[in-house]
Amino acid sequence: MTTHVTQCSSTTLSHSLSDDDEMGGAQGVELRLVTTEEDETEAGPISDVTALVLRHRHGYRRAGVLLCACGVIVFTAAFLLAYGVLSGRYHCSQSGDQEEEQQRGGATSPAGGGPGLYLGELRVMMRKLLQDEDIHNTVSRVSRAPHPPGSSEGTALASEILRRFRQLQMDHTWTESLYATLQFPDRAQRSSLRLVDSAGGILEQISLNLSDFCPYSATGTTTGGVVYANYGRPADFNWLKSAGVSVAGCVVVMRVGGGVSFAEKVWLAERNGAGGVLIYPDPADLPQDPRRLGLNTHTAVSEHVHLGSGDPFTPGFPSFNHTQFPPIQSSGLPFIPALPITATVAAQLLSQLSGASCPPSWRGRLPYVRCVVGPDLSAGRRVQLSVHNKMAPILLNNIFSSLEGRVEPDQYIILGAQRDSLGPGAVKSGVGTAILLELARTFSVMVKKGFSPRRSLLFVSWDAGEFGNVGATEWLEGYLSMLHLKAVAYFSLDQAIMGDDVLSAYTSPLLVDLLEAAIRQVEHPKHAGQTIYSQAEREGGSWRIVKPLYLNSGAYSFTAFAGVPAMELRFTKERAYPFVNTPLDSASRLQEVLGGRLGVTGRSVGELVGEMVLRLAHDHILPLRITSYAQTVLQFSAQLNRHSAELQSRGLSPQWVFSARGDYSRAAETLQRAIDYSDLHDPTTARFYNTRIMKVEYYFLSQYVSAVETPFRHVIHGRGNHTLSALTEHLGLLTSNPECFDERRFRRQLALFTWTLQGAANALNGDVWRVHNTHSHY
Question: All domains of the chain, ordered by start, with CATH?
């Protein structure tokens, strides 16, 4: 640019000097380039100043050119400097905004390297893709007829789901088949219930529904008196014992519900010496008003009675081939017969009872029934219960479809739902299957539109859920040695919709923060404009949503057996949904209970699960609360501290537990701080921390009990003497019943729990040179 200006100036100057006649005009033109507007108005002879300028104008012109060039350079440098500063500030501001937005559940940067979509964009995309109508249609299709495992209806449904997975063009779709031992009613010999006299003569044959049975009940016949035991909870049997009522040899009648599964009711009755069990739905618990939508009094509720999960004849190992294993029977199988009965049959039996009056809280709403506990019937009658079920090996099919992760494909986020049902199963299997298929379709479309999940998504349709999550548990047993290294979390979609008022989340504590962030993002299905979180806060607090995992949950085995963080979500109404586990569990009745909002409620559940899956599939570091179990153990430590005087008087000290709890808390907090101050965008660093985070749940599986004899080894969520609940219950005997306190047993329980907790602390610390265990002798 400088050369061009100089040449132009020289040319003009030569031209002006050569034309003397036009000197004045040329001078006027040249001077107009450098003089002010005021000079332009002058029209007289050339002044001395003008002559001086003309004499030296070549030198001045060169200086002017240099000055202009310097100005351009300075301006350009200043512009670039200002751009860099402002751009840096804007980038920092954007980074800070993104971090703040991530804490609020908003847009965060793409998870992997290369181009990708932000979390906020993915959330909007997911919401647009989820469809109410598809969920409603699938529930109707699945629940149009009963479809138990091994039936033609069940096989046809499995084929349809496999076809729908394949139509989605996921990365991988396959099935896994296995044989498991299931139990069904014996068609050659029906179960029966009779009233007999003292000599055993039949006085009355009580009518039963031939399709009603409890899978895995003991078979055989028992005869005795009748004892009413309310819900069959431990407290109920303790009250009977304190009232001097023995259930030994009697048929115990119990109500459905009370927070106790059928399997636990039968197990407790057996422990107390009962000869058999009858379980009925009371109108006080399940609505049976003919003027409103509810059960009729001639409908029973069925449920399996195996105190465990999976095939009870291959406990702790998979049912791939029965011929390879010795005949081993689960300790959770009952030895007494059990049968579901209707409210009509229960009223017929309980109306003839005599004996002590029951507590007021035990009173149900059976017509013409006085609340007495028995065990005697009028006129010296007794009850004879005969159960005839038959075991059979059934071919099961679990169906899988997956989207492979782009950064850490060997880390799996698993979503699953039960497919089978003994009845129509709108709630039991239809809802979960519909949401599973809709989420699979949604995420497959999102991948085609640019979603690049960091981790793999695995969608599974399980078989034989009605018999104690057999399909899911057998799969866990087959892959147990690797799942704690690969499975990030499991979401059970079983029975997710039984209403649209109240959300419950049965979950591992590790997933609580993830859940809390999700409910702040998703709109309540019944209250437009309100999130699930805000509605829960209005109704008493969002903390009410979180509940512990329970035995019959589809998520339970994943955590209690395999050490994988798991969650099962459920929307309910204040008035219980009465049709689950009955032949009346149809899509039309569910739609009527929901006031026509089945699709809307299913979409809300899908969005809620999808929100959590997005975070797990997107974030560089897994958003699991690794410090959560420290609070659980702290609460137990407080109970120990209250009994420290009694323990020390017996030569027992709680200091060992206190030390292990402190070690775990410090290790978890140290790991969390290390994560917070690390470069999480570095793939090696992220991988290192994610591997440790994924093992936290697994660390709470006791290594000191057998997976075959005690499959639910988790010390917080499991079952057995090694668990925190068993230890707490035993500790309570110090004040409630000191004579029953077993010091030797308590020492063993305390040791099993403490060593598992200390092992978890050591594992969280990482390398062995970071662990410093120094135990004093107390």
Answer: 125-182+399-618 (3.40.630.10), 190-387 (3.50.30.30), 627-765 (1.20.930.40)
